[in-house]
Every structure is written in structure tokens, then in C-alpha cells.
Design a protein that fits this description.
The chain is an alpha+beta fold. The chain has helices at 29-35, 39-42, 54-65, 110-156, 160-184, 197-211, 233-251, 319-329; strands at 14-18, 24-27, 71-78, 86-94, 102-108, 193-195, 216-221, 229-231, 262-276, 279-291, 333-339, 342-350.
Length: 352
């Protein structure tokens, strides 16, 4: 069989040849490397069973087999055992061979999808900041009037039990004023100095474990070769604390009761030749916060970093928004991928 497809051996693109039942008859070396499966183990496997979008891929292959078209493509996610799904572009074409009628080309598109997500996040962040700034300005003036009127009314009331109501009004007005101040002034710009990101993570780990002593395990998976970076220690502690605390809250929430004791993984690696916030960097820190909780609700996944958006009852919706602001101040980006049982917050920070 290999001799028939010798011309595919040297291709840098992953290519698979399938029979009429969508079983792999041949996979070139590039396909072995991409899928991390030896050719002898690939041979005979039904290709759709390897992908999360099994039904969609089966339809795509069946359409090709029925000669409805000669060429088609779509995005798929290859399910890697013990690892994150691999995003791939899949192109299917027909051949004239009766025993091998389909050829499938696979290309990794994870980096392309990440850059597209970053572009959306940058645009969303700018729009959200402007919207919140305008909204906060509009709220502050009438809020001051409500508080002042409650104070004047309190002076006219003779009964102490009635003054309790004015105190509620004043207290809630102060709480809203504090919220508006946090929205309008995220914090000062960073004061960069050399720092070890693992020392920052250990500080965050200690703070979270002190707050969530029950129901949460934090596992450290650090790359000791990660060099020091230039950053504001306090801002990075606050940003990472917001992300890790968010994961801990998800693991200990009421909706997480069906799950076992939750775990959070803090993982650091070096990324090379990577684009962050529309700039190319030779070297960057890739920091992942991974938890095995119930996941981010689907309806808010695209808005998880927007101010006032929270998947937790009683949450302010400011923690992740502020984390994104602080990471952005350092020239970095943060994004999130989530499904039940695995949520990954990925933070990229330039090292050069």
C-alpha cells in the first residue's frame, strides 16, 4: 500500500487516504507527527471517530463519496488523549481509486484561531471600556443627588426606626459610588521591574489556598527555564489572583457539587516566535490556569472578560475584566477556552 502513495511521503502537509468506509488506508509521516499516532496504529481506524465533530465529518466524507462535489473543507478538533483538542483545517477530495476513493488533508490552525480571538478581544475591550466609562459618568451625578437627598431627609426624621431606611439608601449609594470609581480608574500604569513569574504564582497560590482551604487542590507545573520578565509585581499578582480565585470559586460553587474535589493547574512554558496583541515577539511567557470544574456557561463565554459579566450569582463581573486590563498594560493577552471538566485561561506576556 505504501508504494502506491510514495509521492506523499515527503509532503510537509498531513495527508490521509481513506476507503469507502472512511477507514484510514495510509497516512504520510507528516500525518503521524501531527496526530502523534504511528502509521501502523492509524491504519484501519475510522477517521471520524478521532474528531469531536464526528457527525459533521461523516457527512462531509459521505457527500464526497456520493460525488456531490470534488473538493470541500471545514474546521475540526482532533481529540488527543490526555491533551487539549487540536484545531485543524480539513480538506477532502475524491480520487479515481476504487479501494481508496478519498484523500484528506489536515492543517493545524490553532495559532490562526488564537490570533483571530485576540483581535476580537482587543476590539471588544476598547469598546467595553468606552461604554463603561460613559455609563459610569452618567450614573455618578444622579447617584450623588440621591445620597445628598437621603442625608437631608434623615435630618428631618424624628423617629430612629425611619432613619434606618435612609441609612440603607446612603449605604447602597456609597457602594455604587465605589463600583463606579473602580470602573473609571482601573489602577495606575505599571511600574516595571525584573521579577520571577514563579514567585508571583507562589504568592497567588498561597493566597487562594488560604481563602479556599477546602475543596481545591493547586498543582504547579513550572518550566524552570522561564527567564525573569519586566513587570509590575503587584498588578500581576492581582491579575493572576483574580483568574485563579475565579477558578476556585467555580470549583467550590453549588453547581460544582456533583464534581469531585477540584484541582487547579498553574502551568508555565516558553513560547517562541508568537504574535501577541498584533505584535510579533521572539520570546514570550505562556501561562495557563487550568481547572476541572463545570466550565464557563456557554452563553457568556464570548463575553467573559466584559465588565459586569459574571457566571456566578452575586459576582461583580469586574475580576476578569481588571485581570485583562493589567495583562494588557504589560503588552500581553489573556483568553479562555472552556468546556465541562476543563477550563483553560491562557495568558501570554512578552519576554523580550
Amino acid at each position: 500500500m505504501t508504494g502506491r502513495f510514495a509521492g506523499l511521503e515527503l509532503l510537509a502537509t498531513a495527508v490521509l487516504v481513506l476507503d469507502e468506509r472512511f477507514r484510514v488506508q495510509y497516512g504520510n509521516p507528516a500525518a503521524e507527527n501531527l496526530l502523534a499516532i504511528a502509521a501502523r496504529n492509524l491504519r484501519g481506524q475510522e477517521l471520524p471517530a478521532l474528531f469531536a465533530e464526528r457527525a459533521e465529518l461523516e457527512k462531509l466524507l459521505d457527500d464526497a463519496l456520493q460525488a456531490r462535489w470534488d473538493f470541500a473543507s471545514q474546521s475540526l478538533h482532533f481529540e488527543r488523549p490526555g491533551g487539549e483538542p487540536l484545531a485543524l483545517a480539513c480538506v477532502v477530495a475524491r480520487t479515481d481509486a476504487a479501494d481508496a476513493p478519498l484523500v484528506v488533508e489536515l492543517r493545524p490552525i490553532g495559532e490562526q484561531l488564537r490570533i483571530e480571538r485576540e483581535e476580537r478581544l482587543i476590539d471588544q475591550q476598547a469598546a467595553s471600556r468606552e461604554l463603561i466609562r460613559n455609563l459610569a459618568h452618567e450614573i455618578r451625578n444622579p447617584l450623588g443627588g440621591v445620597r445628598g437627598s437621603a442625608q437631608l431627609l434623615e435630618r428631618e426624621l424624628g423617629r430612629a426606626e425611619l432613619r434606618e431606611y435612609t441609612q440603607v439608601i446612603i449605604g447602597e449609594a456609597d457602594r455604587l459610588q465605589s463600583l463606579m470609581d473602580r470602573l473609571l480608574t482601573p489602577q495606575q500604569m505599571p511600574r516595571p521591574a525584573p521579577l520571577n513569574i514563579h514567585e508571583v504564582l507562589e504568592r497567588v497560590r498561597a493566597l487562594v489556598l488560604a481563602e479556599f482551604s477546602q475543596g481545591v487542590t493547586i498543582i504547579c507545573n513550572y518550566d524552570p527555564s522561564v527567564p525573569d520578565l519586566e513587570g509590575d509585581r503587584e498588578q500581576l499578582i492581582q491579575a493572576l489572583l483574580n483568574v485563579v480565585r475565579n477558578a476556585a470559586q467555580a470549583l467550590t460553587s453549588e453547581t460544582n457539587r456533583p464534581w469531585r474535589r477540584g484541582s487547579i493547574i498553574l502551568r508555565t512554558r516558553i513560547a517562541r516566535q508568537i504574535t501577541i496583541a498584533r505584535q510579533r515577539h521572539k520570546l514570550a511567557l505562556e501561562l495557563q490556569v487550568i481547572d476541572d470544574g463545570p466550565g464557563v456557561p456557554v452563553e457568556i463565554q464570548e463575553r467573559i472578560f466584559h465588565p459586569l459579566v459574571s457566571g456566578r450569582e452575586g459576582g461583580s463581573g469586574l475580576g476578569l475584566s481588571l485581570a485583562q486590563t493589567f495583562v494588557h498594560y504589560h503588552g500581553g493577552m489573556i483568553d479562555c477556552e472552556s468546556r465541562p471538566g476543563r477550563t483553560v485561561f491562557r495568558i501570554l506576556l512578552p519576554l523580550t
